[in-house]
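FIELD: query
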Amino acid sequence: MEQVSAAATTDAQGIVTGWSEGARRLTGRTAEEVVGRAARDLLAEDPPDRAVAELAGTVVLRHRDGTHIPVALRAHPVLGADGAPNGYVITEQPGGREPTLAEQAFQQASVSMSVFDTRQHYLRLNETACRVMGVAEEVLLGRPFPESVEDAEHSRGFHSNLRQVAETGRPARYESYTGAPALNREHAWTTEMWPVRDAAGRVTGVALAALDSTEQYWARQRLALLNEAAAGIGTTLDVVRTAEELVELLVPRYADFASVDLLEWVLGADEPQTALSGEVVLRRVAHGSGTEGTPEAAVHLGEAEVYPGYSPPARALREGRAVLGQAGEPDFMRWVDERNARAPKGRSHRRGVHSMLAVPLRARGTTLGVAVAVRIAHPDDYGDDDAVLAEELASRAAVCVDNARRFARERTTALALQHSLLPRGLPGQAAVEVAHRYLPSGSLAGIGGDWFDVIPLSGSRVALVVGDVVGHGIPSSATMGRLCTAVRTLADVDLPPDELLTHLDDLVTHLASDDRDSEPAELGATCLYAVYDPVSRCLALASAGHPPPAVVLPDGTASLVPLAAGPPLGVGGLPFEATELELPEGAVVALYTDGLFGDRDRDVDHATDELCHALTARTDTLDSLCDTVLKAVLPDEPSDDVALLLARTRSLGADRVATWDVVPDPVHVADTRQAATEQLTAWGLDEAAFVTELVVSELVTNAIRYGESPIQLRLIRDRTLICEVSDGSSTSPHLRRAHAFDEGGRGLLLVAQLTQRWGSRQTGSGKTIWAEQSLTPEF
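FIELD: result
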């Protein structure tokens, strides 16, 4: 379809009788305005005489807007039957006029501009549009749009918008990221489309202007990438996973291949390197590409690589900035050749590599490693804007890697601290058989402050302890260590459970008051302290805000101990109540921390029912029962530390315990000593008779001399031989140094020298002095 030229018809008198569309475009005047008027009225000045005579020449027309238009015209006479002209057809001669200002603006516009009819056929294209399409205007005029482009989603979307504007008469905006026939790479386009109307308001065509918005497009993409980095990098406190997240963000939108290499010390417990120079040793922790299996990689995951000083990664680490490398640069080509020589199998996948970007991972002034991005299929080389973006991404990723490194180091330190404080090998004692499990938390909060302990007490008794410090990390572990040590110290004094928790509560309150930056509740803790006596088979226990223990009787029934749960440690001012119950031999007591039940929102009653049911499982050993309980009750991903302590009770029968009431008279000391000797003979412990006689003599004599009635002697044959003397006085004895000529004062010193250990404990009616002698193990 050729472009229509301007044309008009006149009668013999010069009155306009016809007016073409081309004439309307040329002068801006419609047929209604011109037809019936004299043609001379359209002239801005009289035509040259020669032009009138030759019916051809250049005349100056007056445009509707008042401007003057020089145009070359030719008049063709229309002859009547008599051979005389009845009128004239006046046409514009091709190339015979200067284009109007509007036409010049259209043709020379820096944006691509086109005009289509209502059927999406090309009517006009400017020079930029022809340059983008790669063809002359004459080739496209009259052709439908779909025939000029490839059948792709963006072309169909463009065509749909053209049709929509023609049908609805409403303007539209269409954005796409695509190539063009004459462009060798993809560009972003923002296309404005609007309807073209005639004087009657009818849509006669669609005009458009397409702006190359590639720079703005990539700016938005970079901003979107940064936003994604804020949400997608650092979702876990794991160094390797954080590096993988950075690679996943870069590939394939920003790079065809990407890798993250870290310095060796980042993955271990070493201190940061002070300086980097020459060759650099890095360990590959993550890489990825658009090709399955990442065949471009010359270094395997987990492998250490020595990077020469000229390489972009080494330069980026030394210089502390992003380093660009492009095809054709000596160092870049040398680097690519080295990669190909190292891993020749991936050479075909590296063919066409033309740009790379190496950026250091730096956080808090410390260099951690380097990230590398490579473009192979992507047509654009990396530029300065890409370097700025890469540095921003690397900075965010580096902070996350450093956080993960610090978390791993703190977790390792806290775990080591806890393991050093928790009992490694539980002490030998005959009161209970014990098994335990401690599972540190794997959550982002870090290691908690859970602990447990088994403490042998005098009289073959044993203390069972479990506790939980508020918070996580090294501070909680340190507080746990303090409390663990305090409990052992108070247990050595042999305080009852409720009194021990009272003293422990005072300690936590003092610790909180010493830390001015913390509220008391922030240093709070819960604790359960229980004492089991195998002679009386009595379990005495008290709780400071801790979950009650469960007890499984030999008949297979399990239930929670009805316990008055006192306030957590650190609250202060509230009492603790002790509970006592008698247990048959073979009963199992389960002490635990609340991490066993996982989520705090979990139904506690249901969880404790599961615990009791799991404790009734038939297993060969207590260790197996521990595993059974954890498997049945513990969630798949515990959010807190878990401590579980199981104790199966034993009892010392009457054949292992002998008791005598002592008359508070020194003359009866010999009788008491004789009775004790006879009991040792009955037990087959004659070899211990000499020391036992001395101990009984000294302790009973002291009770008669310094104590109050009633006085009682008790011998217990356990793993050791225990001698206990009780009286009604609450005054505790103590060692003192006797002078050379003193007649007394050496009794307790003698007891301390002859026995394995000795001590005293307060009772409800006075005190008990005890001493233990080691025996050859019988079981």
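FIELD: remark
The chain has a mean pLDDT of 84.
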